Structures are given as structure tokens and as C-alpha cells.
Amino acid sequence: MNQSELLLKHLPNDIGGLASDGFQRVDHPLEPWEKRCHALADVLDYHKLINTEEKRRGVEALGGEMIGKLSYYQRWIAAFAHILFEKAILTPDELARKMAEVEARFQPSEEP
Amino acid sequence: MSTHDHGHDHGTHDDHESNHTAITSTDALPSYYEIMEIAVRELLIERQLITAGEIRRQIEVLDSRNPALGAKIVARAWLDSEFRARLLANGRAACEDEGITFYDDTQLIVVENTDTVHNLLVCTLCSCYPRPVLGLPPDWYKLKPYRARAVKEPRALLAEFGTVIPDDVEIRVSDSTAVVRYLVLPKRPAGTDDFDEEQLAALVTRDAMIGVVPVTVPSAGDQP
Asked: What tens digit of pLDDT does each residue of B85-118 get?
């Protein structure tokens, strides 16, 4: 099986049975934003805006390179944004404007 | 997290590298993805598609779930054969009878370890896990080495947890999905005949309910 056939048969999430090196028993307590992201996922599922399987497929749709570069909850929020665009619930412009607004809140205020 | 530039690359141990470097800011400045989380959440609240209260309540729900819930279920099943039968017949219904609510649309299948069968849980596709009864999964459960190897070489993987399963014991690996989750009912350890439910529950760990370790009784020397 050549490389492209392998990629076709195993989407990025489909790793059961693949060769993998070292296992380490790693864990970390969730950061506050990660926990909020998890709660957001559950609330989105609750309202059927994005269900669990849509979320999983949304992460897969990020592609192997992005999946490799993002942490677990970074993948989730990136997938949520894409899915909400696809469903025409949000537009990329709206999100970009809101992100700029949020970012501005955290900038040190410039006192005269 | 005490160190701010750590933690954002967890979850990528499953891949070959984790070289994004966005998180080098001071403590006051949230990361790009944190800003995205805030922005998405606020936009959805402004559209009245979700509410801030729902997010707050769900955080409380997440905080309220931990392996002690599953441990109580296991201890109960060891002591009450009628409950054990109900638990094995319909895990979700039996847990709900015990007051554990299922906040997600998932079914729960409880798989029982015996002298001839050892069960192991995995989610090869992502990180599905019996969250209502165990809380959130540990990072290693979500990473590639565990997910890739559990279905291919479970004995070797279990050995890395220090769990050696005899060759004449069958290993059954259950692969979780978005709607079907599993919980291992471990074997009750010997020497616990006099234990009450609370004492038994104290022995049952998260990892035992994932199936990567057995339930053991601390040796006399370990006890206070």
C-alpha cells in the first residue's frame, strides 16, 4: 500500500492498531480555559448545535498537520469555529472581530 | 498550571512534535486559542443560542464527576448480586438508579473482569470515556501510544502499567464511541470479605475501571 492509500484508509483520528512508540502515563489538571472549552462542548451538544460525533469529525477535518500541531482543546475550539462557519451560525468575519475585541480587553490600558 | 508556557502542548505527545510556539506571553495575556474560546462562547451567548449560566452549570457538573462515583458503583456491585445483574444488563439505568445523572447522550456498557477474562477500555478514534461516572479522562488515554497500541498489543501495553495478564486469560478490548461508553467492573480482591461498601470503594481506582490495573488491597505495612 503506498503512502496516499494509507492516508486514505486511515483518516487522522483512525489510529487504532498503528505502530506507535513509547507510552508514558502523562496527565495534567485542566487549565481554566480548557475546562470552559469542555463545558462549551457539552452545552453545544446539549442544544444539538454541535454533537459529539460532529465534533470528532470536525477535529478530523482539521487534517493531520493541524492535529499534530494543536493541543487537545485547541483542536476542539478550532473545530467548533469551522463547524459553526459551515452551519452558517457564525461567519469568519464575526469571529475575527470578536477575537480582536476580546484581545483588546487584555491589553494593558494606556493611562494618559 | 503554575508555569504558563507549559501545558499548551500536552495532547500532542501523540504526534511527532508539538512545536507551536504561540504561548510565550505573560500570565495576563491569554493565548490565541483561549481568545478564540472566549470569542466563540460570547458570540453564541449574544445570539441567545446558549447562556452563560449553562456554561457555569456545566463546569460545576464536570467538577462534580470523579472516579469516586464509579468506585461506589463497583463496590455496590460486589456486595449486591441483584444490583450487579442490573448493572451488567444496563449500565446507564443502574447508575441512574443510584442517582448518577447522565448529562450526555451516551449508553454505558459495564464489562466484568473474571478469572478468565480481562477487559480494557480505549477510544481509538478520539477520547470517548464514561465521563458521567469517572470524570474526564487522563491525558495518556487521549494520546496516540495508548490508542494505537491498546487494540494491537494490549498485553504489552498492560505490562507497561505493571499489569501482567496470564496467557490463559483472554483480554477483551472495548473501543468506545460517541454514544457507547464502557466501564470495567474489576475483580474483587481477595482478603476483602469483611469490607463494607465504603471500604471496598476506597480500593477502586480510576485506572482499575479503565482496566489497566487490578484492584489491590494495600499490604499491612502500607496501612496507617
From this structure: 999 999 999 999 999 999 888 999 999 999 999 9
Q: What's the CA gap between B197 and B204, in Å, rounded?
A: 11
A20's grid cell: 506507535
- Per DSSP, the residues of B84-104 read HHHHHH-HHHHHHHTT----S
Nearest residue in chain B measured CA to CA from A80? B40
Task: Select from A10, A14, A31, A75 the residue whose CB has the most chain B CBs within 10 Å, as the one to mutate to test that interface.
Answer: A31
A74 touches chain B (CB under 8 A): yes
* Radius of gyration, CA atoms only, chain A: 18
User: What is the pLDDT, as a whole number, of residue A50?
Assistant: 97
Return the DSSP state at B221.
G
Above 0.85 for ipTM, yes or no?
yes
Angstrom distance (rounded) from CA B11 to CA A75: 10
pLDDT greater than 50 at residue A31: yes
Q: pTM for this structure?
A: 0.84
- Within a 13 Å sphere around the CA of B82, how many CA atoms are in the beta-carbon half? 1
Q: How many angstroms separate the CA atoms of B53 and B41, rounded?
A: 12
- Residue B13 sits at the vertex; the CA angle it makes with B146 and A37, to the nearest 5 degrees, is 95
